[in-house]
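FIELD: query
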Amino acid sequence: SVTPTTTSGGKQFIEFVVGSTRRLCLVTNQYLLIRTADTAAGWVVGRNFTVTTARRAAVFRSAQTRDYMFVALGAGTNYWVWDGTDNTTTWTQDADDAAINFTPYRDELFMLQQQTGGFFLRKSLTGGTDTSWGAGYAITDRTNPASELVIFRERLFVGSEWGLYAPTVEAMMGRSFQVDYITPSFAAQRNANNTIGMHTWNDWLFTPM
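FIELD: result
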């Protein structure tokens, strides 16, 4: 095993092309680390976010000539976008929006965001460092914090303290917006850590409870 020289509570592994090389990256509470060698010193700091609220990252490309990485830092700090020019450049912090999570689906990027009325889902078709986001659609209220986004079997699932919610197929296609509460029985097992780390593997959706 290898413990990076810089550590800060690992959140997510994600692959990304840095320069012209595909690298394994690690989102931690405070840093984005890049694996350049299988040694402790080989995990170099790509970005120090200076806050300890980093949560999730997603890779997305629209009309751009390369992929971009979007890093969510939680409700209180605007998200960052990295173009992967090299290990430390170029990073751009969004001027308007904070994000809790991101996930791509086909030619769209979804963002989970906390607003005054609760937790909302927004989507973009543009990507890049000047992303345009559509209107927000409510998923849960403030009493039921949402934290995770996963695409499973062509459907978007949102993880919250009360369990799983999913926009309908019509909502995914942009025709109308309606959310199904998939797991009402989970509300009886409510916990602040429910669904955190939710992910897919093979033909399974794993949901920590």
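FIELD: remark
The first strand starts at residue 10 and ends at 18.
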